[in-house]
Each structure stands twice: as C-alpha cells, then as structure tokens.
Design goal:
With 150 residues, this protein is an alpha+beta fold. Helices cover 29% and strands 35% of the residues. The chain has a 6-stranded antiparallel beta sheet with strand order 4-5-3-2-1-6, covered by helices on one side.
C-alpha cells in the first residue's frame, strides 16, 4: 500500500510540475536613457503547451512629452508590415508623458508563415505553424525578462 501511495505521489509531482494549460507572464523594465523608462509585459495564454493568444503591453514614459512623437513614429514604423494581417492588432495611445503600445495576436488563427515572411526571426519561436510555450519562455528569459507561469 505504501508503494502505491508513493507512486501516486510521485506521479502527481511529475505531472503537476508541467501544466499543459495556463498563462505565462513576462516582464521587464529598462531605462535606455536618462528620464526615459520602458516597461514591457507579455501575457501568453497557452493550451496543450502551445500559445493560443499573446498580448504585449509596452509603455514608454519620458521626461518631455514632445519626445513621445519620435517614439510613436518609430513604433508605427516597426508595426506597419503587420497592419493588414488578420488576427494581429496593434494600438498606440498617449496619455500625459506615457506612450502605450498594445499588441494582440491570436495564434490559433493567424497565418504564421506571414509572420515569418515579415520577420524571419519569428522562426525562433514558431514550430510547424504553432508557438510552443517553452520556446516563448526561453526567448524572453534569454532577453532579460522575468517570466512566471500561472
């Protein structure tokens, strides 16, 4: 009986450590130049270990509000090639001295080949048309993000 209980406990521990469904949240904050703070938050919802939806929230706070126009221009340039892709939405807003860029990607429906065409680096996280959550976590962690699964 003790062996069965021990085996069940071990099985629960092994399977409990790797949840196939959940949310991965990755965050970072940097100060690239004095008076400017960039904070990024990536929220990946995954099912069966593949990302289904990704929401990114990037906030740039500056000392002088006039600096936001340049950041807005650069972000619009960065996302212009994604503008007509279905299931990929980017929105930029400015309030006071903070620019917020929010991107939502529905990986269940998006054409991942188009994402790779636009930015070949997307091959690093796209595998057979899907995005494995562990690849996303490894990518963000290797770029200095703090990631936690829920």
């Amino acid at each position: 009986m003790k062996k069965i209980i021990s085996l069940l406990f071990l099985l629960i521990m092994i399977t409990g450590c790797s949840k196939p469904n959940g949310t991965l949240i990755c965050t970072t904050t940097t100060n690239p130049i004095e008076g400017t703070t960039i904070s990024s938050k990536y929220i990946a919802i995954y099912k069966n270990n593949y990302v289904t939806n990704l929401k990114t929230i990037e906030k740039i706070t500056v000392g002088k509000k006039s600096d936001l126009d340049l950041y807005k221009e650069k972000i619009e340039e960065l996302y212009k090639d994604y503008k007509d892709i279905k299931y990929y939405k980017n929105k930029i807003s400015i309030k006071n001295k903070t620019l917020t860029s929010t991107t939502i990607i529905n990986y269940k429906k998006i054409d991942t080949n188009k994402l790779i065409e636009i930015a070949p680096g997307n091959k690093n996280i796209i595998e057979d048309g899907k995005v494995p959550i562990n690849k996303v976590k490894d990518y963000y962690t290797s770029n200095g993000f703090n990631c936690k699964k829920r």
